Amino acid sequence: MKKIATLTLMFLMLGLPACNTVSGMGKDIKKGGEAIEKAANK
Exposed e or buried b for every residue in 17-40, given b needs 16+ CB within 10 A? Predict the structure, then answer.
């Protein structure tokens, strides 16, 4: 039982920063798209 709890905790510790990384990448892509859209509308 301790192994399962330890593995779950390790997975969460590694998984949560990955979510933030993906979220940040999504924001960067969105900003890039907005810049392209703004340039196209000029």
Answer: eeeeeeeeeeeeeeeeeeeeeeee
Handedness of CA 20, 22, 23, 28 (dihedral sign): positive
pLDDT tens-digit series, residues 16-28: 777 777 778 888 8
Residue 25 per-residue DSSP state: H
In angstroms, the CA 15 to CA 27 distance is: 19
Residue indicated by tokens 């392209």: 36
Q: How far is CA 33 from CA 19, 36, 37, in A?
A: 21, 5, 6
pTM: 0.53
